[in-house]
């Protein structure tokens, strides 16, 4: 678990501003206030003082951001109680799942679906718009986000008759570990095995590139079952906490 938490602590700051506050690494995305892109990560075994928690909260408040943390509970088992005692509330718990090359199960794309890497700015724009719609967010994609996507990990999109219907990304490999994220398929195309094919495609790519562990954090049990079909196994949990 420590290796996966270290991976997140290493990769999350890329493209973000950071600040060290006690046993926390605070990250701030300069172009968005989205809470999923602005959060703090604790050190392993973190047991902050009340003053350190207050300082973390104040740092996010000064920037007009929601004070928020994401971390794997096994890496800092005493932290949640301290944060709740300071006024933070639980947003959600999500499972952590991992896949090794020995566990991976390949899945081909269903008939009529083509998987490929984005090849142009417009491909990245259409892929990200489809992902946003699938996640219930606005589809508009600015040039800055397109530029960021082009330098972030390995992307794959799913296409049906020229229409981009989903996508996903595998982030950079660090010390043999990588995260698969953003797996999303438009509602009208779900239930066909596209999400499983996207996940298997990305997982195979990173394993072949040298990763010994791919991990992801499914948002719900249903998508977790999809990931299980391509070889991912439960390995812990990730907790999200914030102060409104």
Radius of gyration: 18 Å
Shape: globular
| Helix/strand structural class | alpha+beta
Tell me, rounded to a whole number, the average pLDDT. 94
Number of helices: 7
What characterizes the major β-sheet? 8 strands, mixed
| The CATH H-level homologous superfamily of the largest domain | Gcn5-related N-acetyltransferase (GNAT)
The CATH architecture of the largest domain can be named as 3-Layer(aba) Sandwich
How much beta, percentage-wise? 25-35%
Features:
244 residues, alpha+beta, Aminopeptidase, 2 domains, 8-stranded mixed beta sheet, 7 helices, 11 strands, 29% strand, globular
Write the layout of secondary structure elements.
Elements: H1 2-11, E1 17-21, E2 24-28, E3 40-42, H2 50-62, E4 68-72, H3 79-85, E5 89-99, E6 114-116, H4 121-134, H5 143-150, E7 154-160, E8 163-170, E9 177-185, H6 194-208, E10 213-216, H7 221-228, E11 233-242
Parallel strand pairs: 9-10
Antiparallel strand pairs: 1-2, 2-3, 4-11, 5-10, 5-11, 6-7, 7-8, 8-9
Helix pairs in contact: 4-5
Q: How is this structure best described in words?
A:
The two termini are 29 Å apart. The chain is 31% helix and 29% strand. The protein has 2 domains: 2-87, no CATH class; 114-235, Aminopeptidase (3-Layer(aba) Sandwich). β9 (177-185), α6 and β10 form a beta-alpha-beta unit. Strands 4-11-5-10-9-8-7-6 form an 8-stranded mixed beta sheet, sandwiched between helices. It has a 3-stranded antiparallel beta sheet with strand order 1-2-3, covered by helices on one side. It is an alpha+beta fold and 244 residues long.
């Amino acid at each position: 678990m420590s290796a996966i938490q270290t991976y997140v602590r290493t990769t999350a700051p890329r493209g973000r501003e950071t600040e060290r506050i006690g046993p926390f690494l605070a990250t701030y995305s300069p172009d968005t206030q989205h809470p999923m892109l602005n959060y703090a990560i604790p050190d392993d075994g973190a047991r902050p003082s009340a003053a350190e928690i207050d300082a973390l909260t104040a740092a996010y408040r000064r920037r007009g951001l929601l004070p928020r943390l994401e971390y794997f509970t096994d890496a800092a088992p005493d932290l949640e109680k301290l944060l709740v005692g300071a006024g933070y509330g639980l947003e959600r718990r999500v499972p952590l799942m991992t896949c090794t090359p020995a566990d991976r199960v390949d899945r081909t794309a269903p008939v009529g679906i083509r998987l490929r890497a984005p090849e142009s700015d417009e491909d990245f724009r259409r892929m990200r718009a489809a992902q946003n719609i699938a996640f219930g967010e606005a589809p508009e994609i600015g040039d800055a986000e397109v530029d960021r996507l082009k330098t972030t990990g390995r992307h794959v999109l799913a296409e049906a008759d020229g229409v981009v219907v989903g996508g996903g990304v595998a982030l950079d490999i660090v010390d043999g570990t990588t995260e698969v994220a953003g797996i999303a398929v438009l509602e009208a195309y779900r239930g066909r095995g596209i999400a499983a094919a996207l996940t298997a495609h990305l997982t195979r790519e990173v394993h072949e590139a040298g990763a010994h562990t791919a991990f992801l954090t499914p948002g719900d049990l249903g998508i977790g079952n999809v990931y299980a079909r391509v070889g991912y196994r439960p390995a812990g949990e990730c907790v999200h906490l914030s102060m409104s």
